[in-house]
Amino acid sequence: MSCSVLLRMKIAIFASGTGSNALKIIAHLATLPDVQCLILSNKANAPILAKAQTIGIETFVFTKTEFYEQTTVVDFLKAQSIQFIVLAGFLWLVPPSFIAAFPKAIINLHPALLPKFGGKGMYGMRVHEAVKAANEMETGITIHYVNEKYDEGEIILQARCPIATMDTPESIAQKVQALEHLHLPEVVKNLVALASKGL
In the β-sheet with 59-61, what is the strand arrangement from edge to edge? Predict the structure, then answer.
């Protein structure tokens, strides 16, 4: 894949915590000089913000009012010419007006095999605890487009891993995170390439 294919692509990554997936995406795209990443967060103390600033990535922090009741966030993204958005550890439901502003250009990562263990309130360790309690034999990740409902958008990719009898929610989380770090950056890279060609 040549850099010319990805000419002037700008993507925004939304994160609320440590941002390990965001950093993996940034690192994966680092060899493509015509792709620029920005980090947005709804938490001013999110560790990802300091990490991003350390490596020269622009950041933007917003409030719930700015996200849901105003056009502040959309206006910022439009001003930055953002063409693609990744939700990587961002828990708020995206409002319809936001989705309409970026049609089929927003994707989300969920730490389970949807439609199982999805929906409002299902995130992070809550998901892995529910998977363990249900005695599931496997789990994984789902990368999907975002629509107006939690975790119900069109699925782009699912990746699976087995659950052993001795696994705990914590060890399940480690397995799932390994899948996230392996697959999400590559999916983003491929989708950005398609978006840059207008496909």
Answer: 59-61, 35-41, 9-14, 84-87, 106-110, 138-145, 155-162
Domain ranges of the chain: 3-196
* Amino acid in the structure at residue 49: L
Q: Give me the pLDDT at residue 4, please.
A: 39
Which tens digit of pLDDT belongs to each residue from 94-123?
999 999 999 999 999 999 999 999 999 999
- Among the listed residues 110, 128, 144, 183, the single catalytic one is 110
* Entry pTM: 0.91
Q: Report the percent of the chain where pLDDT is more than 70.
A: 93
Instruction: Specify the DSSP element, H or E, that contains 131.
Output: helix 124-133
110 is annotated as an active-site residue = yes
**Does residue 87 contact residue 106 with C-beta atoms inside 8 Å?**
yes
**What's the topology of domain 3-196?**
Rossmann fold (3.40.50)
48 phi/psi in degrees, rounded to 5: -60, -30
Question: Do residues 33 and 3 touch, judged by C-beta distance below 8 A?
Answer: yes
Structural contact between residues 11 and 84, judged by C-beta atoms closer than 8 angstroms: yes
